[in-house]
Design goal:
Radius of gyration of chain A: 16 Å
Number of helices of chain B: 7
Strand content of chain B: 25-35%
Structural class of chain A: alpha/beta
Strand content of chain A: 15-25%
Number of domains of chain A: 1
Oligomer: heterodimer
CATH architecture of chain A: 3-Layer(aba) Sandwich
Number of strands of chain A: 6
CATH topology of the largest domain in chain B: Rossmann fold
Number of domains of chain B: 2
Shape of chain B: elongated
Largest sheet of chain B: 6 strands, parallel
Number of helices of chain A: 5
Order of helices and strands of chain B: EHEHEHEHEHEHEEEEEEEH
CATH architecture of the largest domain in chain B: 3-Layer(aba) Sandwich
Shape of chain A: globular
Number of strands of chain B: 13
Largest interface: A-B, 25 and 22 residues
Distance between the termini of chain A: 41 Å
Strand order of the largest sheet of chain B: 3-2-1-4-5-6
Structural class of chain B: alpha/beta
Distance between the termini of chain B: 46 Å
CATH superfamily of the largest domain in chain B: NAD(P)-binding Rossmann-like Domain
Strand order of the largest sheet of chain A: 3-2-1-4-5-6
Largest sheet of chain A: 6 strands, parallel
Helix content of chain A: 25-40%
Order of helices and strands of chain A: EHEEHEHEHEH
Radius of gyration of chain B: 22 Å
CATH superfamily of chain A: NAD(P)-binding Rossmann-like Domain
Amino acid sequence: MKVVIMGCGRVGARIASILDHNGHDVSVIDKESRAFRRLAPDFRGQTIIGTGIDEDVLRSAGIEQAQVFIAVTNGDNRNIMAAQVARHVFNVPEVICRIYDPVREDTYRRLGLTTVCPTTTISAIILDHVIGAGENLPHERGEE
Amino acid sequence: MYIIVVGGGKVGYYLTKTLLSEGYEVLLIERNPAKVEAYQEDFGAVVIDGDGAEAATLAAAGAARADVVIAVTGEDEDNLIICQMAKQKFHVGRTIARVNNPKNEHLFRMLGVDVTVSQTNYIRHLIEQAIPKHAFIHLLSLRHEDLAIVDAKISEDSPVAHRSISEIALPPNCIIAAIIRGPHLLVPSGTTEIVPGDDVIAIAHRDYEDELRSLLVA
């Protein structure tokens, strides 16, 4: 399976290394070459320096053959934009996008992106330990 | 008319200043508190501090009653998300985005931004008009933001030279509106032959402008 990952931080590097170890064809994009040091030493995939919101960079990462695109830079807007390019320009079947802001996450999930929001996920896990499940959560700022 | 401008760089600053002087109700959202403070001395309370892609900031700015949201930050991804959030969450009627990478103009419009402004493309068009050696000139973008009027100078090696209009397979959403031959303005019909030296004035959908260019001037 061909997978393109944008963002080689802790999460991106870990996903890339594990998928590569499992025999998948992985390309990782990051703005900084030093980010690739986070990859496993035996990583055999492709590394591309650039920004994933540029169609040419995505093309050189092999997005046209990709079954999966994963956007995990630390910028919500960059992840959202790249995910929409992967979905609507390159018709990648599976597009996954990390969004820290719960309101933006909710908005783009409704628009059909597959989204992951670490803020709500991690808060829920911690709250579960502190006060147990089933508590009411307050509304997000900016929610109607 | 209530206009929200997001991004207080040079473009956002002068845009706010101009719109205020023309009597519009304007609010500028800027992320850098030091800039906000300086701008407030200039403009008063119409500048607020915040991230325009965040729903809470847009809500505080009164986006729900805004007629227009204009995103002019230096980052394309921010401008796109600001416009999309304004549309999706606050149902703003008209969103305008500054596009830094000219290739993103088409993408932004596909993703729901109403109007895109690319300085790069704008300057390119000005250069084409100023330098006569260009055979294909973008004369004007119409009020309908997807249409442009172009002028193609036909030379002997143009693919359409010595062919009649009906023989030419134009790209979709393009029409030949007029032909200027010397001092004469010709209203073209199917039998009109295009000859070298003609100026062909066409109306083209922006997505097909490049295709029309290669058809007319090679």
